[in-house]
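Write out the 3D structure for:
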Amino acid sequence: MTVSAADGLGAVLAEPVWARRSSPPFPAAAMDGIAVRTVDTRGASPARPVRLAPGTFDVVDTGNPLPPGRDAVVMRERVQRQGEAADVEAEAEVWHHVRPVGEDIALGELLLVPGHRLRPVDLAAAAAAGVTELTVRRPPRVAILPTGDELRPADAILAGGELPDTNSPMLDGLCREAGCETQVWTILPDDPERLSTALATAAARADLVLLVAGTSAGRHDYAPDVLRRCGRIVVRGVAIRPGHPAVLGVVGQTAVMACPGYPVSAALAFEELARPLIAWLQGAGASRRPSVPARLANHVRSKPGARHLLRVRLGTVDGARVAMPLRGGASVLSSLVHADALLPVPPDRRELSIAEAVDPELWGVRSAPDDALLLAGVRDRALELLAVAFAGARERPARIALCDAATEDAVGWVRDGICHAAAVVGTDGTPPARVGPLMAVRIAECAVGVAVAANRPLGAPAELLRAGHRVAVAPAGTPARRVLDDTLRATGVSGLDLLEARSDAAALATVAAGYADCAVSTMPAARHAGLRARPLGRAALDLVIHRRVARRDPLVQVLLEMLASRSLAVALERAGFDTCHRADPRVA
């Protein structure tokens, strides 16, 4: 098919591109100055300039055609105008500061070969070469068939047990990013007859069908049976994790991939299996993700027998690149959102050691993102506000990468120089300590309360924290957990059914969904979640930073400036935090 060169971005060439004109098409000045005959400049130097009479030179700007009879350009800095004449302070050589015809592209020259995926620079080169139309391969047609009785469109109001369809927009975007034309079907029920009809119809119209979910061994996992009914299975189950339940098959002449239902499994199965297939359909070479050297920030266990794709964040701490593992699990879509790279763990490795040299493969980026400040700990509303403020810093745009970790692990990483900072609970009203190589900087203090859903009575904390009540709370090392533990020790209350959530936000969400009687969280987090709360106590949040890294790492220096800024204080105070006891973050 033929497309306008201006519309060719992302397409794959079907035929070679030959230059239809030279670039430049004429000898052109490469500098601002005067065009001269080199013979007229013989012997010129700063000490003994040569004067050129009017009519023996021409004033030119960069890109101008070289006037007839001239064979060089003297740059403006080497010319002193003397009325209509000019003194030249440098002897010119033939074609000096002149772009010859075809210096960039020559008429008839091969510019691009078949199978090349067109980039913006390729379109610019085609324009320079006089090519206005390109013969490209037809984009592969991909049909995406979401399935599941529990699925609803992402904008639907969900009832109990219903889930939003997140895989369809993700796979649609991945296919379009790979240069495909896509058709996303409406959600299909778990009905083998309807699934078979839809699959047969889609396969007749598409080059590739992505059948979403139903690949495992559940009661309503019909994808393998439907594939057998309509065509044949080629591969059932692949040696990658996440993504192991993927199924590959053929219906007629059309390739079919049945994707696992968990979003991380679906995304990584697409990357490992469907993307290379799409490249083959386009006649383009399958590109490999570039890798970067790093050292692993934490110990990792891996199940042998399959290639484990570990999601990691990248940062540079004190001059060394670090790969920080993110939360695992095939259902943790946010791990892909926050991942900078994928770290393949070979099938024969059961574990990777902390500080081990690794080569993670960049995910969704073109270069190593070294602008990330790694901040480890349990998520907190104050940390999220700090991350927003840090991303908006005009002096040096950068980002904070929040890495989930237990307090002890996070502080250990800071001590070992593989993390910029760790979030820890401080003591309300007490300045943070500076002990040994580590320093603690106060972010804010706040009240911690007991929160209930909007439809529940808001009694006194003693009424809410009583035996038999299910209480959601963040893990140890958070302000909420510190205050709850102190309260239970002081009151002697026991028999609570504690439900540990991964953060204040997750604890509050559990209450809002009706799966806990109350949650203990910071009051700012409860207010942000729209829940009512009674104060229970106070706590502070500090950042622990290595003093050496604070002196030498530019990102940490930006962080310290941010912590001392009035703009951050205002944002924290508006959210309900107290910033009057913040410590001076300057490093001695």
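Residues 44 and 390 are 57 Å apart (CA to CA).
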